[in-house]
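Hi there, hope your week has been kind to you so far. Would you mind checking whether the tokens look sensible for this chain? I owe you a coffee for this, so here goes:
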Amino acid sequence: MFKKILFATSATEASDHAARVAFNMALNYKAHISIFHVMGVPTRGFSQVVLDVKTREEVVFDDEYVAWVEEEVKTYYAKQLETAENFDIKVAIGFPHREILREARQSRPDLIVLGGSTGAPEESVYKRGMVGSTLQRVAKAAPCPVLVVNRPAASFWGGMSNIVFGTDFSKASDAAFEFACKFAKALGCEMHIFHALDISTMHMGRMLTQDEIETRIRESLRRIRGKYISKIKGEIQDYAFDVWEGVPYVEVVKYAREKHADLIVMAHHNRKTSEEDNRLGSNIEQVIVRAGCPVISVNKQVRN
């Protein structure tokens, strides 16, 4: 299913959980893995002086420095590279999201793997603020699905058996559903289709009554049966579907935890959001921060 994997890393502990997943996937799928590291941001325009993301020092960007950074990355992942059959290491300077997207357009990977930081902000460009910066920009514009591993997960992609697909019935969710189905079928996973009925906002200036909530839940269950179930019958042996009410990202995280999910698949919308949405982040971005398992963001139909 995956032939080329782009692993964007800070080559620090912040990316260790994502590294384990990325290398395991490359091994299991016999895929080529590109280890991609953005080493720093130019201090002034097209200056050759770069602010190193690891040392936080200004250094002169030249061939010798590039070779040194590549060797550092290779040394950091020496243990994983012992079992890697097909890999390369690339480094770049610039803003992380721009360089990751540039590399993705050039190399056309089947999957981008990113890690989230749990350390101090100065330790990595892939820090907690990534939800509003690097991750957000990469997920919205990436030409392929984006897998984010924000914290340790029991599966680490070895022994995956349970996938949760979160839907809002949008066109973007159709692409995420297609990907989730292919993935569940390829790995023989159980698949849970889940919709969170959003009752966190006022409707027509008032709160929904419990009768209205239950009516909408029944309507959502009918939509799931009509939109998705007919497509997976005969394709996926074990599946289930549920609708809960509440704050969508909270309910998705709770549902995935209850079902012991190894992976969450959701759509990342490209549409513009309100100031409130921008401040809080989209549902999938909040799920990524809070979920106890890896999360895949899909923003468009996946290439065959």
